[in-house]
Amino acid sequence: MRSRRSLIALAVAATAALLLPLGSQADTVEVAGVKYDTQAEVGGKKLVLNGAGIRYAVVIKVYAAGLYLSEKTNDPDALLAMAGPKRLHIVALRDIDGNDLGKKFTKGMEANAPREEFVKSINGVLKVAEHFAAKKELAKGESFTVDYIPGVGSQILINGKVAGDPIKEPEFFTALMRIWLGKSPADDSLKEALLGIERKRRR
Predict the structure, then answer these.
(1) Would residue 15 count as lying in a domain?
(2) Residue 203 maps to a domain
(3) pTM, rounded to two decimals
(4) Rounded-to-integer distance, Cα 37 and Cα 34, Å
(5) Which domain holds residue 49?
(6) Is residue 105 situated within a structural domain?
(7) What is the 3-state secondary structure (H, E, C) of the chain?
(8) What are 71-98's pLDDT values in tens digits?
(9) What angle do CA 121, 53, 168 make, to 5 degrees?
(10) Residue 8 lies inside a defined structural domain of this protein
(11) Better-scored residue on pLDDT, 120 or 15
(12) Total count of domains within the chain
């Protein structure tokens, strides 16, 4: 009798699992061991993970990056022009020198952003460089997040903790995103990953 009851209980549990919404079975995406939630909340608005991927330096994994938007798109121009909150979340896959990271971000923005947009972003560029210089190193496993909230600006978070006041210039976040989504992206495969474009990736 007990064994029969056990079998019935197992059958009920299995059926219940099959009836669960698909979203509850796959609520994270894993990239190089880093788990990205498929949803996030920024500025009181729910966002979805548009894409996530790896930044490589030749064959070395440098960091994982995930991009959250109010709705998914694989069009970089539409993405950059999209209104509403956005989030960029980066996790170091190896130790990264803070000054070096700040300089590369600055060069990437300058190489991809229109001159007027870059000039209006200078205040934010300097703040980011200061944060990384003070941090000295983004160690493996540590994170760097930029939350863009309309009317507030871009809030920098390091390891989940707020770093300084928001960068008020709206051009800053767009210029920052051009590092990965511009015409001369830091990594072509990462650009496609952030845009949610599937391709055979290196492991």
Answers:
(1) no
(2) no
(3) 0.84
(4) 10
(5) 27-194
(6) yes
(7) CHHHHHHHHHHHHHHHHHHCCHHHHCCEEEECCEEEECEEEECCEEEEEEEEEEEEECCEEEEEEEEEECCCCCCHHHHHHCCCCEEEEEEECCCEEHHHHHHHHHHHHHHHCCHHHHHHCHHHHHHHHHHHHHHCEECCCCEEEEEEECCCEEEEEECCEECCCCECCCHHHHHHHHHHHCCCCCCHHHHHHHCCCCCCCCC
(8) 999 999 999 999 999 999 999 999 999 9
(9) 20
(10) no
(11) 120
(12) 1
In the block, tokens 């803070």 appear at 98
- 66, amino acid identity: G
pLDDT tens readout for residues 160-183 = 999 999 999 999 999 999 999 999
Q: How far apart are CA 127 and CA 123, in angstroms?
A: 6
Query: Scanning the structure block, which residue is given the tokens 């894993």?
Result: 30
Neighbour count for residue 15 (Cβ, 10 Å): 9
How high does pLDDT run on average in the chain?
A: 87
**Residue 66: closest CA among 41, 26, 110, 35:** 35
Residue 149: which CATH number?
Answer: 3.50.70.10
Amino acid at 117: E
